[in-house]
Design goal:
Blueprint: E1 3-8, H1 15-27, E2 30-36, H2 47-60, E3 66-71, H3 75-81, E4 86-90, H4 94-110, E5 115-119, H5 130-138, H6 149-162
Parallel strand pairs: 1-2, 1-4, 2-3, 4-5
The chain binds adenosine-5'-diphosphate.
Adenosine-5'-diphosphate (ADP) binds near residues 14, 89, 96, 121 and 129.
Length: about 160
């Protein structure tokens, strides 16, 4: 049984993340999407909201070998606990590389046996980030095509609540 964690903030999950999950679930028997609490980033959505949005996507897309959970701690420790041998990360452009390289090497220092696997999304998602979606939503622009329908509704609700 090959298990991978897909860690991130997912504030909120976008179609780019979903593309990566779909690729990862072809390569691994089980993929655990791990949502970082990331209090220092002060996310727009609380961790429970982020987990719930991902849960809905998994259910709707019938991603049967994908689960989601939140975590707040050392990633490799969770990986060991879940018997995962790989960490999935998405690489969009060279701008992602430096940070990802640093993280991957630091994680390798923590636990030699856990490998970081980089996956490239479809090129139509290479410019897509959660932060740009949040920004466009805040400014009431068009963003429906970048996120799944349940996330679109949650973003709309959140933005209206803030007005
Ligand atoms: P983090 O704060 O850990 O970077 P994110 O939620 O921003 O969390 O991203 C989680 C992972 O998903 C990262 O590896 C990121 O590069 C990747 N990712 C984010 N958006 C996309 C996208 N549009 N296409 C491919 N990978 C993506």
């Amino acid at each position: 049984m090959k298990i991978a964690l897909y860690p991130g903030t997912f504030d909120p999950i976008t179609n780019g993340h979903i593309d990566i999950i779909d690729r990862a679930r072809d390569l691994f028997d089980k993929v655990v999407v791990t949502v970082a609490v990331n209090a220092n980033k002060s996310p727009l959505f609380g961790v429970e909201e982020r987990v719930e949005m991902i849960q809905t996507v998994i259910r709707q897309k019938r991603f049967n070998n994908v689960t989601v959970e939140s975590f707040d701690g050392l990633l490799v420790r969770l990986a060991r606990k879940r018997k995962a041998t790989a960490l999935i990360r998405g690489l969009r452009a060279t701008s992602d590389f430096e940070y990802e390289f640093q993280m991957a090497l630091m994680n390798r220092k923590q636990e030699e046996s856990i490998m970081t696997v980089f996956l490239m999304p479809h090129e139509k998602y290479t410019y897509l980030t959660s932060s740009i979606v949040r920004e466009v939503a805040r400014l009431n622009g068009k963003y429906k095509q970048f996120v799944p329908p349940n996330v679109y509704l949650q973003l709309k609700r959140k933005m209206n609540a803030d007005i």
